[in-house]
From TrEMBL:
It holds the Pfam family Methyltransf_23. It comes from Flagellimonas hymeniacidonis. Transmembrane segments: none annotated. The keyword Cell cycle does not apply. GO terms for biological process: methylation. One of its GO terms (molecular function) is methyltransferase activity. Keywords: Methyltransferase, Transferase. This is Class I SAM-dependent methyltransferase.
């Protein structure tokens, strides 16, 4: 069931009647406004704009969605490929003029190498769980050309937990990393299967990179516990 892709197709076809609802293990109900998934460069948050400005060479946009980042880079003359597991998302990308697309999960893709890999809108979340982050990073590393880079943004969601008087945070299930979240999406009364999504604080990401032979540089911090990081192979 491609809920995300169907929502993108509906919006692109001028059949926009509702947004995607999300339910998470953090006991929160939220929504993903479909117009935001079709934003242009001027509407993107500063972290995304900065990442696109830092892109070089041949680019892979992982979890490309409706193709916003790819279309921007195409216009700038970059050879850019949009990859997404959603068939509907890839169809929308093609309809919008994205020249190179791949309809696969990133862990199933190994056909080419790139100078820049983008994982925006918390694309590192595709790793699912902290335990799997090393495997995920190593696969990304295998897709990099020499001197290539990975640009990703994520958030430290510690702020979502109650804080003690001594400044510590009360995390109900301390056995798991607090950035591991389970999501379910709903669109037009259809619900997706639950899936894991990872939010990783910068220090944890940096430690994971060091353990897997990668450099991790903080490029810029956002206004709300978010950040943009640049990863590269350790020389």
């Amino acid at each position: 069931m491609d809920i995300f892709g169907q929502a993108l197709l509906d919006y692109h076809s001028n059949n926009y009647t509702e947004d995607i609802k999300t339910y998470s293990s953090l006991d929160e109900e939220d929504s993903i406004p479909l117009p935001y998934l079709f934003r242009d460069f001027k509407e993107m948050p500063p972290l995304e704009q900065k990442a696109l400005k830092l892109a070089t060479g041949k680019v892979l946009d992982v979890g490309c969605g409706a193709g916003n980042h790819v279309l921007y880079l195409q216009k700038k003359g970059f050879e850019t490929t949009g990859l997404d597991a959603s068939k509907g998302a890839i169809k929308v990308c093609n309809l919008r003029g994205v020249e190179h697309t791949v309809n696969k999960k990133i862990l199933a893709y190994s056909e080419s190498k790139f100078d820049t890999i983008l994982l925006l809108m918390n694309g590192i979340g595709l790793a699912g769980k902290l335990f799997d982050l090393g495997t995920f990073l190593n696969h990304l590393k295998s897709l990099l050309n020499p001197n290539g880079q990975i640009l990703l943004d994520s958030s430290d969601i510690i702020y979502m937990f109650d804080q003690d008087e001594d400044g510590g945070f009360w995390i109900p299930n301390s056995e798991n990393y607090y950035g591991e979240v389970t999501f379910t999406m709903e669109y037009k009364k259809q619900k997706s299967e639950p899936f894991y999504w990872l939010y990783v604080d910068f220090n944890t990401l940096q430690n994971a990179c060091l353990a897997n032979g990668m450099n991790c540089e903080l490029v810029i911090s956002g206004e709300h516990y978010d950040y943009l990081a640049k990863l590269s192979n350790r020389q």
